C-alpha cells in the first residue's frame, strides 16, 4: 500500500491529496463563518476554521486502514506544511518558526480532542462550548457557537455518509454553511 501511495503512482496520488486538501481549505473559507458567525477573519481565525475542517476529515477516516490511513497522514503533513508556510509569509523568522509550530500543533491536537469528545457523545452544547473557547476566547458569550456546532455535527454526518472510495479518489464534500 505504501508503495502505491508514494511509488510509481506518486503523481496521481499527489493530485488526489492536493484535491482533497483544496476541498478542505475551501470548506474552511466559507464566508458565512467570517461574515455572519463572527469567526475572526485573521490568521488565527482562519487557522481555527482550517483546523476544524481538518479535524472533520481526520475524524471521518479514523479507524480506516491501508491507503485511507496513509492519505490521512499525508493531509495532516500538508496541513502543517501549509501552517509553517503561512507563518513564514507573516514574517516569522527561522528561529521563531519551530516554537510557533510546536504551539500551533499543541493547539490543533487539544482542539481535536475536545471536538472529538463532544462529537462522540453527540453533545451539541459541549461542542459549542469547545468551539467558543477555542475560536472566540476573547468574546465571552458567543451566540454563533451554536450554529457552528450544528454545522460541525451536520458535516460529520455528511462525511460519514460518503463512501471511502469516493474520498480516496479525491472527492470530499462538506456542507454549505448557512445562516440559521
Automatic annotation (TrEMBL):
Pfam families: Ubiq_cyt_C_chap
InterPro entries: Ubiq_cyt_c_chap, Ubiqinol_cyt_c_chaperone_CPB3, Ubq_cyt-c_CBP3-rel
Residue ranges occupied by any Ubiquinol-cytochrome c chaperone domain in the UniProt entry: 36-174
PANTHER family linked to this entry: UBIQUINOL-CYTOCHROME C REDUCTASE COMPLEX ASSEMBLY FACTOR 1 FAMILY MEMBER, UBIQUINOL-CYTOCHROME-C REDUCTASE COMPLEX ASSEMBLY FACTOR 1
Family, similarity comment: Belongs to the UPF0174 family. Belongs to the CBP3 family.
Protein name: Ubiquinol-cytochrome C chaperone family protein
Amino acid at each position: 500500500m505504501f508503495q502505491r501511495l508514494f511509488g510509481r503512482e506518486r503523481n496521481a496520488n499527489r493530485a488526489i491529496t492536493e484535491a482533497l486538501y483544496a476541498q478542505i481549505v475551501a470548506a474552511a473559507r466559507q464566508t458565512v463563518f467570517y461574515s455572519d458567525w463572527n469567526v475572526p477573519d485573521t490568521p488565527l481565525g482562519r487557522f481555527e476554521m482550517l483546523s476544524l475542517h481538518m479535524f472533520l476529515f481526520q475524524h471521518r477516516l479514523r479507524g480506516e486502514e491501508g491507503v485511507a490511513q496513509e492519505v490521512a497522514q499525508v493531509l495532516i503533513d500538508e496541513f502543517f506544511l501549509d501552517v509553517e508556510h503561512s507563518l513564514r509569509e507573516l514574517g516569522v523568522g527561522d528561529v521563531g518558526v519551530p516554537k510557533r509550530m510546536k504551539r500551533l500543533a499543541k493547539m490543533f491536537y487539544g482542539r481535536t480532542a475536545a471536538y472529538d469528545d463532544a462529537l462522540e457523545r453527540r453533545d451539541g452544547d459541549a461542542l459549542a462550548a469547545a468551539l467558543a473557547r477555542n475560536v472566540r476566547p476573547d468574546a465571552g458569550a458567543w451566540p454563533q457557537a451554536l450554529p457552528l456546532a450544528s454545522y460541525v455535527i451536520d458535516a460529520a454526518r455528511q462525511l460519514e455518509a460518503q463512501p471511502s472510495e469516493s474520498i480516496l479518489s479525491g472527492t470530499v464534500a462538506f456542507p454549505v454553511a448557512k445562516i440559521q
